[in-house]
Amino acid sequence: MLINDRYKLLKRIGSGAFGLIFSAKNVNTNEIVAIKLEPTAQVDTLTHEAAVLMKLSGIPGIPNLRYYGVPDHNRYMAIDLLGKSLQTVSSDHKKSVPIEIVRMYAKQMVEIIQAVHERGFIHRDIKPPNFMTGPNPSSNETENKTDKIFLIDFGMSRTYIDDKTNAHRCNKMRTGIIGTPRYVSINVHDGNEPSRRDDLISIMYVVIYLVKGRLPWKAAASPELVSQIKKTILPEELFLDMPPGYLDIFKYLCSMSYEEAPKYSHIIENL
Hints:
This is non-specific serine/threonine protein kinase. By secondary structure, the protein is an alpha+beta fold.
């Protein structure tokens, strides 16, 4: 079977709550892509994700949307085929990724999320599995190749600017958590709607995970316990033996108000 008269599924490479991920071949160009498959009987997340990717088109570090359609009883979305997730990178380094590599990744993560925010979107599910490595076209073949970072999975993303007022959306208190408990900010644990600051706080938790191989609340059995540990542990302990600039960034992000615009250049300079 060909999807959209172009894509032939090759092998399953992943899965999630939404459905399955396959590598696929464009039979016209021989290009290999990734295809997300979601049964139409399930809650529709792919239509939203495809729409977000279209609006983020052209941002370095955002995979290109190649195709979206519902030709049969499944929804299909084709995007660039990428490499390893940062979770896999961490495992490959036996948990602790060298700080020079983490610095390179961290700067790219912030640059990508800055561009996403500037297009009016909050990601809302920042975590190691949602950052992927890929070839860096700016790297010289004769030099050490450096991985380029890509941000994926925009199924939970939303705009933070109200279409009617053209102002920042008002904060809505919630009973549930939006995102992955291990990586969300204390603000989100407390029921606040995620905003720009919270994407960045989640990136700092990813940075800690890459450097140390684990987070202090790894073994916590519930979101409530994760929140309790986050609230009791001192930032100085969280960032112990890490570059001092990282602690300063984290404290700055935690001091931000809900609608406040982050100082991205200040953050990048101190990573």
